[in-house]
Structure formats: C-alpha cells, structure tokens
Design goal:
Length: 294
C-alpha cells in the first residue's frame, strides 16, 4: 500500500484532519460491533419461539431475528453517523478559523491556495489562483462492521467496514502550464479547472497493535481497489478555448488516485508504549521484508 505514515502525539494539521476522522469512526465502529450489534451467542440464548400462526415456525424465527438485527444495526448506525458528521464539522470550522459565512470560506480558500503553491512543480506550473472552494456539508458514512481474522497472525483480529462518502466538495482554480523549450518560459497555456467529488467508496481496515511489537501501533488502511468518481470541468487556451478535455480529466483523477494509494496507510503510535523513532524503525523493517518477498 505504498509508504507507511507515522503519526506522533503532535501531528500536522493534515494528519490530524485525516486521523481525527478515521480514528473516531473506527473506535465507534468497535463500540457498535461489540456493545450494540446482536451476536450469534446472544441470539441462541433468547429462549423458545412461540409462533402466531400455523405456518413454518422456524422460518418466522429466522425472519424475526433478521429484522431485529437489521433494525438495531440501522438505529446504531444512525446516531453513529450523526456523531461522525459533528466531528467532521469541527475540522471544517478549524479550517475556516472558526469564522462563518464569506469570511470563513475566504480563510479556507487562502489556506488551500497557499498549500497548492507550496506543492506545485514550479518549473512546469505558474502561480495557482484558487477562486472558490466548497468544503461540503456531509461526512463519510460507515456501515457493515465485521471481524476478519488475520491469516498471518492468529492473535490479531482485523476490523473491516464499508465507507461511503458523497458530498459537494469542490475547488475552482486557474494556472498556466509553462513551456520551457527552446528557452525558459517560452510560452504559457492558461488552464482553468473546477474539480468536485461525486463519490468515494472504500473498505476501511483497522489492525490493532501487536503485543509482540517493540513499538505497538494502530494501523488504519484503505485498499487500492476503492471507487473514486470526480467531476472535472476545464478550459484551456487564451483565444481558441478547449473545453472539458477528457485527457485532462483522466490525468487529474489518476493523480488523486495515486495520492490516496500512496497515503492510504496510517500508523498511530500508542502513547506511553513506544516512541516515534522505534515505530519508524519497525516500519522500515516491514518494508524491507516486503521488498525481499517481491
């Protein structure tokens, strides 16, 4: 899953944003799984069934148990996702410096613009101007929490659940592609883009710390076969405009997928159990072992 990223007790804002959302959702999923979901053992202890009609009693019992379990799961997921949305709203507020309306959106726009220009390849892209941002109004929704045994280590139990995220998140920006042949900045190709999220779906896996590890870490990961649907509108050129170029859309979606795949694993160091340096050393050992197997 690409490089592993270590979180210390003093994470950056981006790490805190991602970790804050995922860790809260994961911990709540565990609470739901073991405290609120009906287990097979508890179903066996519910006592005899008394049919209300002459039809097959076993069929009615199975249907009643399924309805009860589904109702409890939906009820638990309802308040669970409400709490998740409140957590995400806190991070949205912090990105806007706790301001509302136009002032808050302007703070978020400047922050995203500064970050984009720090990351841009200066030899190929001119200054990026972010014209507008939409931070969205929804939050990722988790469902279908389940326990998956780890074949490599029978002592570890992996928690897996489904995540779906549909929102109005979007960013509109403009820049210029620089042509440096036959000389530096020989020509510029103006580009205007609006990128918005249509759908993001993925499984999320939580691997608990191993007691045998020198630096136990909590691992949160996304598989590479996630679903990502982006909507892109574009204009290229200054006079003869090219609108919504398919290749540009494919390039943008490829780059977003690449970033998610490379950064799709997070390792959280447990406080008071291991140090960041020790955890980093353990990750390097794991990567070296995987490279040998490949």
């Amino acid at each position: 899953m690409g490089n592993n990223y270590i979180f210390s007790l003093t994470p950056t804002f981006t790490q805190g944003l991602v970790l804050g959302q995922l860790s809260i959702l994961v911990l709540l999923a565990l609470v739901l799984k073991y405290l609120f979901f009906v287990s097979p053992e508890s179903e066996k202890e519910t006592g005899p069934f008394h049919p209300l009609s002459n039809s097959n009693p076993s069929w009615h019992q199975d249907a009643e148990e399924d309805d009860t379990e589904n109702a409890q799961e939906n009820e638990s997921a309802h308040w669970f996702n409400i709490l998740a949305r409140q957590v995400v709203d806190v991070y949205r507020a912090k990105l806007q410096n706790n301001l509302t309306g136009y002032e808050g959106i302007e703070v978020a726009r400047r922050t995203i613009e500064d970050h984009a220009n720090e990351m841009r390849p200066r030899g190929f892209l001119d200054h990026i101007t972010v014209h507008s941002v939409d931070l969205g109004m929804s939050a990722p929704k988790l469902s279908n929490a389940r326990v998956v045994n780890d074949n490599r280590d029978s002592s570890l139990t992996t928690i897996e659940f489904d995540m779906s995220y549909t929102d109005t998140i979007s960013v509109s920006l403009s820049t210029s592609y620089l042509f440096n042949y036959p000389m530096s900045s020989f020509a510029r190709l103006p580009v205007s883009l609006t990128i918005s999220l249509s759908l993001f779906e993925s499984k999320v896996t939580l691997v608990p710390p191993s007691p045998a590890s020198a630096a136990p870490v909590l691992t949160i990961s996304l598989p590479q076969d996630f679903t990502l649907n982006l909507k892109t509108t574009s204009l290229m050129g200054s006079r003869a405009m090219l609108r919504d170029v398919p290749k540009l859309h494919e390039l943008i979606e490829y780059q977003v997928r690449k970033v998610l795949a490379l950064r799709g694993t997070w390792k959280v160091v447990l406080p008071g159990v291991g140090s960041l340096a020790t955890a980093q050393h353990e990750v390097e050992k794991e990567q070296a072992a995987c490279n040998k197997q490949d």
